[in-house]
Amino acid sequence: RFWLPLVLASLPTMATGEEMPPALQDSWGDFWLFRFFVNAAGYASIVVPGFLLIQYFKRRNYLETGRGICFPVIKSCVFGSEVKSVHQEDGSLPPRAEPTESSTARQVFKLLFCAAGLQASYLTWGVLQERVMTRTYGATETDPGEKFKDSQFLVFMNRILAFTVAGLYCALTKQPRHGAPMYKYSFASLSNILSSWCQYEALKYISFPTQVLAKASKVIPVMMMGKLVSRKSYEYWEYLTAALISVGVSMFLLSSAPNRHLSTVTTFSGVVLLAGYIIFDSFTSNWQDALFAYKMSPVQMMFGVNVFSCLFTVGSLLEQGALLESLHFMARHSEFTAHAVLLSVCSACGQLFIFYTINQFGAAVFTIIMTLRQAFAILLSCLIYGHTVTVVGGLGVAVVFMALFLRVYARSRMKKRSKKLPPGETPVQKV
After folding, report:
1. Cβ–Cβ under 8 Å, residues 337 and 132
2. In angstroms, rounded to a whole number, what is the distance separating the alpha carbons of residues 273 and 250?
3. 3-class SS of residue 137
4. Alpha carbon 25 to chain centroid distance?
5. pTM
């Protein structure tokens, strides 16, 4: 409960860093496309040998012929138990526990606790994300300061803490028997790393409100990925709300005047990075949805994905020599160290609040809370960092959030209808 006041008290300090124009902050070595290929080469140096090893063990039929001390590890990583759960309704999250004779006051307290935890975690995370990626550190009257440029290091910081928290949670609580081959987490991990990297990098070229609205519109590529990856079908209202979201986002983006401050101009690089974020994130959610066909808890999913995320990011950082550079930057600027650590804490705690909220109140309540969080994040960013929104842009924001709430309402109605269907009839799958 003390996080938000603490962060709000430090906001004047956060906003004091000087913002650098995108055109001046990047040399060719720091340009996002170059960094993307360098990072991808680092991941490939781990993925390709891993792929070859997996194919080798499968061709050797290691599951039948393998022996020795390494057999359990290789079996878990390459083969798993291959036992899928057939009792999960939609292959995503386990059914939430129904409250047993809990008083109304207790339920209200739990709901307020979940809402406050989600808002504090992700609003603080959003403010810090914009501060770290768009402002300088160590600026004085004579020294303009320096800007932190390595988004991959921030991804690594987030993942190492999430991995630790999920590992401790799994060790201290009873979890379902794990059956999925470990290597299957690497696909979701790789796309998750790339989506997070694109998200951080995009803030160098576009404003935070633009990024939030673009993230709200990711339901469109999620639906497309759902058709391609999972062969899902969708209702008419899902296509309608997706179209409304597209209209609202377009109104907001087109309302940006060309003479606006550089931080609010949507550049081509920003658009490409946002598209990359949405595509990678859409793949992540659909791949995780397929993995939930195995009997596992959300925290086990969090642990498995972050194991590979830590491996990929630390390997790439070490190959580039960027890990030591980032640590030296932390040593030079204690303020950045505090921001990076708090950013990681908010990310890890936010994920735990997500699991707890969905388990206690269901996905509909969680979606409403997170939709409100997106609206508050835009307002908070405009207040702290001085972003301006025109009347047309404001209407576009209103259209987007109206469509999001319409999706929540329609989805809840569909779930009520699906409970009344005959036993042999199943509802249409939805995102």
Report:
1. no
2. 17
3. strand
4. 26
5. 0.78
Tell me if 198 sits within 8 A of 282, measured CB to CB.
no
Structure tokens at 250: 């377009």
Q: What's the one-letter identity of residue 191?
A: S
pLDDT tens for each residue of 274-293: 889 988 988 888 888 888 88
Rounded Cα–Cα distance for residues 147 and 14 (Å)? 13
Cβ burial of 341 (10 Å; 0-12, 13-18, 19+) is: middle
Residue 218 dihedral angles phi and psi, to the nearest 5°: -70, -10
Q: Which long-range contacts (CB under 8 A, 24 or more apart) does 86-95 make?
A: 88/292, 88/293, 88/295, 90/429, 91/289, 91/290, 91/292, 91/293, 92/289, 92/292, 93/292, 93/298, 93/358, 93/359, 93/363, 94/297, 94/298
Judged on CB neighbours under 10 Å (0-12, 13-18, 19+), 137 is buried
* In contact, 96 and 360? CB cutoff 8 Å: yes
Strand partners, 19: 135
Of 175, 203, 386, 215, the residue nearest 295 (C-alpha): 175
Q: What is the 3-state secondary structure (H, E, C) of 371-403?
A: HHHHHHHHHHHHHHHCCCCCHHHHHHHHHHHHH
Distance CA 204, CA 136 (A): 12
Cα three-residue angle 387-391-397, rounded to 5 degrees: 70
Token duo for residue 407: 């999706």
Residue-wise pLDDT for 177-188, tens only, equals: 888 899 999 999
Pair of tokens at residue 353: 């609040």
CA 265 – CA 262 distance, rounded (Å): 5
The whole-number average pLDDT for the span 219-236 is 72
Cβ-Cβ contacts under 8 Å for 303 (sequence gap 6 or more): 163, 166, 167, 169, 170
Torsion angle, alpha carbons of 74, 75, 77, 81, to 10: 180
> How far, in Å, CA of 307 to CA of 185, rounded?
9
Of 8-12, 253-257, 399-403, the least confident: 8-12
